[in-house]
Amino acid sequence: MKQTAWLLATALAAVAATGCGSKNQSARVAAEQLQKSFQKADASITEEVVQASNALQASNYTQAVIIMDRVVQAQPIDAAQKNAVDALLIQTRKAIEQDPKLNTPQLYQAMSDLLTRVHGEN
User: Fold this and answer.
1) Is 111:65 a contact under the CB 8 Å cutoff?
2) Which of 2, 51, 79, 85 has its C-alpha lying 20 to 30 A from 72's C-alpha?
3) Beta carbons within 8 Å of 2's beta carbon, 6+ residues apart
């Protein structure tokens, strides 16, 4: 568990530092980036990404992260899609910083799972 926590913290810090200027994105911009990066995916994947984007904009971070975890399990993702997922994770982390009550065990685990699926164990 400590290794996962360290991995999550390290990866989010690295993504935030190098995230193509995504550090200051709003939830709306992160949601648009998700939809744009997956617009050529299958219809079922695109629908799930829309649901995740809507959840993100509604501040339902747990649902957004869980949906995107399903998406990245269903298909390989390219660099633009990884960047969009990173933007979602950064936006979620910023929301947690502003409201620590959001940091539930379920959200923590969902973020950890998604980050590991997108960037691997190391």
Assistant:
1) yes
2) 2
3) none
Would you state the structure tokens that stand for residue 86, as one six-digit string?
Answer: 């990173």
Residue with tokens 């923590």: 108
pTM equals 0.79
Q: Find the length of the chain.
A: 122
Of 12, 70, 21, 65, which Cα lies nearest the Cα of 41? 70
Q: What is the pLDDT of residues 64-118, one digit of tens each?
A: 999 999 999 999 999 999 999 999 999 999 999 999 999 999 999 999 999 999 9
CA distances from residue 87 to 12, 23, 24, 75, 104 in whole angstroms, order as listed: 10, 8, 10, 19, 20
Nearest by Cα to 31 from 62, 64, 53: 53
Q: What is the 3-state secondary structure (H, E, C) of 19-75?
A: CCCHHHCCHHHHHHHHHHHCCCCCHHHHHHHHHHHHHHHCCCHHHHHHHHHHHHHHC
